[in-house]
Design brief:
This is tRNA N(3)-cytidine methyltransferase. The protein is of the alpha/beta class and about 375 residues long. It has twelve helices and eleven strands. It starts with about 35 loop residues before the first strand and ends in an 8-residue tail after the last strand.
Amino acid sequence: MDCSFPEGDPAAVCGKRQQFGSRFLSDPARVFHHNAWDNVEWSEEQAAEAERKVQENSTQRVCQEKQADYEINANKYWNNFYKIHENGFFKDRHWLFTEFPELAPSQNHLKNLLSENKRSEVYEYYRSGEDGPGLTIEEQLSCSSVSLGDKTQPPLTEESVTQKLHHLEICANEFPGSSATYRILEVGCGVGNTVFPILQTNNDPSLFVYCCDFSSTAVELVQTNSAYDPSRCFAFVHDLCDEDKSYPMPENSLDVIILIFVLSAIVPDKMQNAINKLSRLLKPGGIMLLRDYGRYDMAQLRFKKGQCLSENFYVRGDGTRVYFFTQDELDTLFTTAGLEKVQNLVDRRLQVNRGKQLTMYRVWIQCKYRKPLGSSTS
């Protein structure tokens, strides 16, 4: 694995990620002095015990008849989940802006590209005519700045004309957020614990946020929230696994796609097609952000025999399902979809219940994968 990381304030340690990682447990006797400890290293014995527990709870599989029910009626199980919990189950994810500055104000995505030693690459991309010859970044981001008839521009090739016309088509077509210049999509939005912090924090008038969920109950809770503004946000019901159902925005139109604890909820065999389809929605240079369950997370170790659907894939008591990833598995999903790795890290955290004197070892994976500049979906 690349390295470990937790949630918290910046603290760079031997090349590990800087956003999280400010409290380290050097003295085991002090474990109950705080609620959480960062960058927790597992001993060989602890790793072996975790593997043993997973092998044990995987020996008895859910019967095929029940597995078919969980797949066919997945929307029913998620609707029931949100009817029971409504908006009281999850907390707003304000940590997202630390971990994912692409979601913060002022077109942070382009700024991050420039800060990652890609200044010349971005400049050449926008200068070369691949998405409009001779235009500045700011002009490229504005539909009104595109011109096909500037005599000072380099000669147009058939490819550049086709791509420019596609850019104009995106601007001209009427779809929710068509006039925006920075577009974010959250897949699996739940009741809006990511979307609403973004809208409340980022007042940029050029921003538009899309959010979708498999559960119609969850989407209804988003739409009826007092913070929901249809002029800045569009919430809709969507099945991530439905290959025939299109998204309400065209391909090559999104700057950011967010996947927070959602990919793990679908059948592993359908994950690749889902990521492929999402990748086509990204603009060249657009980025996909993911945070999800890692292999041997406490939740995986707590499953009992008879809850395992397939290897590392389980069903909860309420009928919802969850998969536990490795870094390599996620890397394969994203790179197969044509994306380039920016970040793929493991967050190992020790959470503590000081009242009950309990320790809980959590394992999450966080990824950022970018669509290469100059690439687009035909």
